[in-house]
Structures are given as structure tokens and as C-alpha cells.
Design goal:
The structure is a single chain. This protein is mainly beta. The strands form ten sheets. The protein has a four-stranded mixed β-sheet, with no helix packed on it. Strands 11-18-17-14 form a four-stranded mixed β-sheet, with no helix packed on it. Strands 20-27-26-23 form a four-stranded mixed β-sheet, with no helix packed on it. The longest helix is centred in the N-terminal third of the chain and has 19 residues.
């Protein structure tokens, strides 16, 4: 009888120890969410009253009662605490698959403004966020209106749902000038690289063009190739504003003939002939 009591006591003690073991808290759900979208995390505890959900970076993702909302691209840790039990889960926030492209003029004068727009691959109710990399050169408001501040170049960015488009803007002074540096006579078959000079340090985006493609051709870098005799006008203008330009007249001629040398006697008797040879 005594042995039976000892056995029952040992059994009850073991059962109570097993029952006292803490249950592990586990989070279930996806570990990836798009910007502007949400996922729901669940856990394995039953009838839990006080749940404390936390995000390591609310700028990347927020969490409300297990619902994780992606705010910006990045990685974040979601933590759940119930009583003395705590667990966490790493969540990756990725860009929503939407293409955004800035369209508009890439040239603006100091003190003036231009309007930029965006093209989206699909509609969204999210606002477009505009930003200038250097506001000392150009500023942009949240309607895409760019105002020139000082001469130079800066990048305008438009972002939505973690996707960004970049657009380089050149700001020029009101008295902007541009001139071509080159030669006005070339020979057929010759190549020459024309250059330009302006009063803001040659930071502008320019376009090279010619008026007679039968006489010559020109590359986007200003390399002129003379093909036939004649005249051709080389023009350089600001990309986005053909009203600001410079022109240069070039005459294409045939190569000069090589000098000819004659050899032979330099005296001849009256009534006789001699033979002369050329090189």
C-alpha cells in the first residue's frame, strides 16, 4: 500500500511539472509585404487577452493587432508579447510593382518654373512624392512644379509605393549664351570633333545637328565626318529649347593633290626630243 502511495505521488508530481512548462509563443504568416499593402500575422496562443504588438521601425511597417502594413521598402522586426511570452518575426517590405516615369521639359531659367508630370503603369490612389536632390539649384513642390534657383544641374525624383523615377534638370541664367568651337574648312574624308562653350561651365545637355547630310554627318558628341564637297551648317542647341543655339558654317573641299616631281635631262637640242618621267 505504501508503495502505491509513493507511485501516485510521483505520478502527480511529474504531471504537475509537465503542466508548468511554459508554452512557446509562435508567430504564423507571410514574411513579405508590398508597400501600401498588408498581411495578417497570427499566433498559437488561445484566448489571449493582453496582446502587445510592436514594430522596430514604423516608417517601414506598422502593426495593428497582427495586421502589418507596408510603408516603405526595407526590413523590419514585428514583436508580439503575451504575458511573459515574447516572440518576433522578420518582415521584408518590397516595392509595389508599378512603373513610374517623369515626363516634361528638362531645362528651366533661373526664376522661372516648369511643370513635370508622371506616367504610371497602373492607377493608384497613393500620392506622388516629389523631391529635388539639390534645392539650391531647383525646388519642386508636390504638384511637380519645378522652379530654377541657381545655375547648375540637379535630379528631380518622383516616388510612389516604393518606386522612384529620376529626371535631370538643367537650370540656366536668363543671359545664357552658347558658342561652337571648331574649324570652318575640312577635306573630304576628314573627321573633326566640334565642341561647345557656354557661360555656366558646359554642364548643359546639348543636341548637335547639321543642315546638309549629303555633305557631312555628325554624331551626338559633335564628331563631324566630311563626306562630299560643299557647305554644311553645324548647329548646337540646348536639349529642350531649340531657341537657344549656335551655328557654324563649314566648307568641305577635296584634298590637295600631292606634289609632282619630274626627272630627266633639262637640256634639249633644237629639233630633238627628250623624255621626262614623273614620280
Amino acid at each position: 500500500m505504501k508503495k502505491m502511495y509513493i507511485f501516485l505521488f510521483s505520478f502527480l508530481l511529474l504531471f504537475s511539472l509537465i503542466g508548468c512548462e511554459k508554452k512557446e509563443l509562435i508567430l504564423n504568416g507571410e514574411d513579405r509585404v508590398e508597400v501600401g499593402s498588408s498581411i495578417v500575422l497570427t499566433h498559437n496562443f488561445q484566448n489571449s487577452a493582453d496582446e502587445i504588438w510592436e514594430s522596430s521601425d514604423v516608417n517601414i511597417a506598422e502593426v495593428f493587432n497582427g495586421m502589418v502594413i507596408g510603408n516603405s521598402v526595407g526590413n523590419v522586426t514585428i514583436t508580439l508579447t503575451i504575458g511573459e511570452a515574447t516572440t518576433s518575426k522578420e518582415i521584408t517590405v518590397v516595392a509595389n510593382p508599378i512603373n513610374i516615369t517623369i515626363v516634361g521639359q528638362n531645362l528651366v531659367e533661373i526664376g522661372k518654373s516648369i511643370k513635370l508630370d508622371v506616367e504610371l503603369s497602373k492607377e493608384t490612389e497613393e500620392e506622388i512624392v516629389w523631391q529635388s536632390d539639390d534645392e539650391t539649384i531647383a525646388k519642386v513642390n508636390q504638384n511637380g512644379l519645378v522652379r530654377g534657383i541657381s545655375s547648375g544641374k540637379t535630379t528631380i525624383k518622383a516616388s510612389v509605393l516604393g518606386n522612384t523615377s529620376e529626371f535631370v534638370i538643367t537650370v540656366i541664367p536668363k543671359n545664357y549664351t552658347i558658342a561652337i568651337i571648331g574649324k570652318n574648312v575640312m577635306m573630304v574624308g576628314e573627321e573633326y570633333n566640334f565642341e561647345y562653350s557656354d557661360n555656366i561651365g558646359n554642364i548643359s545637355s546639348v543636341v548637335w545637328d547639321i543642315d546638309n547630310k549629303d555633305v557631312a554627318s555628325i554624331t551626338s558628341d559633335g564628331l563631324l565626318v566630311a563626306k562630299n564637297t560643299g557647305e554644311v551648317v553645324v548647329t548646337v542647341y540646348l536639349k529642350g529649347n531649340k531657341d537657344i543655339f549656335s551655328s557654324f558654317l563649314v566648307k568641305v573641299v577635296l584634298p590637295a593633290p600631292e606634289s609632282i616631281k619630274l626627272s630627266g635631262d633639262n637640256k634639249v637640242v633644237q629639233g630633238k626630243t627628250i623624255n621626262l618621267e614623273s614620280n
